[in-house]
Amino acid sequence: MAERLALIDYGAGNLRSVENALKAAGAADVLVTADPDVVRGADRIVLPGVGAFAACMGALSAIPGMVDAMGEAVHAKGRPFLGICVGMQLLADTGEEYGSHAGLGWIGGTVRALKPSDPALKVPHMGWNDVVPTAQHPLIVPGEAYFLHSFAIEDIDPALRLAITDHGGTVTAAVGRDNIVGVQFHPEKSQSYGLALLGRFLEWKP
Predict the structure, then answer these.
(1) Domain residues for 135?
(2) In the predicted structure, residue 117 carries a pLDDT above the cut 70
């Protein structure tokens, strides 16, 4: 029986691009859903995210029972979870975009505005950049990925930071613990590197 992958629809992600990339990577049953019961029963979960931290967290929390269903699937049942871009940032304790806002608190840290040391480097950080692993993890390998963001997780436990990139200073590119991984870059826009990562996620048995 094919695994059921829940791609959470909370109005804050480029869902079709992520769905198509997951299918191209080998996912047979991708359920784009805003139904907590579907998330609760899924074998794998992907949380995309595009936009501001507060708006995304607010939209996710506005779906009755969704945050609880995510917690049950990920924490109680140990289902593999992948957060993408703002979907990764929501794993932090706090986001500082347009004020201070609570996140899911699954990874810790604070999401702060990028402040490159070189004024010639623009924000948002947009385009291809290196992914440099800082810890061994089956999903994260060296390569180039596509980034598009103005904020990033800081003050994270070094043991939970899986990769970095550079944009006028060190920027967290991937985080993870147990059955949870988040990536700041967009696998669905990262061509062969991104598809390979999604393929590893589909096979991952934490």
Answers:
(1) 5-203
(2) yes
**Three-class DSSP category at 136:** coil
DSSP state of 155: S
Quick one: which of 194, 158, 155, 206 has its CA closest to 48?
194
pLDDT score at 1: 55
Q: Is the peptide bond before 206 cis (omega within 30 degrees of 0)?
A: no
Over the chain, what is the mean pLDDT?
A: 95
* Separation of alpha carbons 115 and 138, rounded Å: 30
Cβ atoms of 144 and 173 within 8 Å: the answer is no
CATH code where residue 38 lies: 3.40.50.880
Active-site positions read 85, 186, 188
pTM of the model: 0.96
As for how many domains the chain has, the answer is 1
CA atoms within 13 A on the CB side of 93: 7
pLDDT > 90? residue 98? no
- pLDDT, position 71: 97
